[in-house]
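quick one before i forget lol
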Amino acid sequence: MNKFLTCVAAGLLISGAATAEYYAGLGYGASWNGGHAWTDGMKSDYDTFSGMLSLFAGTVLPTDWVDFRAEAEVLRLDLKPDIGKTRRFRAVLGNVTAVIPDTGWWAEPYVGGGLGYARWDHNNSIATQVIGGLEKTFELPDWAGNAAMAVDLEYRHLWVNEDGGKRDNISKMNSDTLMLKLKYMF
């Protein structure tokens, strides 16, 4: 799965090389997490609050009405479902968003989704997410060339199902995150 996502992201980046601009950045957000875990036949529900870190890079594929963005993203989230215990969540995702340019708003709205590979502690799973946000772009001085900086305010809903290999070790996690992202566009 990891090789597949890498190939998809590389193909999207290469295919947009002639007509696109590239970007890279990082984001940090407040995440409200909920779910349940079956461990050794006992179910426990949990609601936690944590921070989410995102590193990403991508390309913009412009069309006449909508600009599509394809990006590869790495997420980190530390859940604390039990007192004194931290579950480490890491994911590699491929995201596609549609940006509506020239709306006349103070920022450009966008929506999209992502699919990827996740790892909790020592178990692997599929991660999916829906994304919505607003992006404000700022042009940099002439000495920076055609580069720009962007600030995004983004909401995302991420969910993961984990199968530990037997009926007694299954988990489900949902995460709602409000994230602030900084993006360098070149």
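fyi Helices lie at 2-15.
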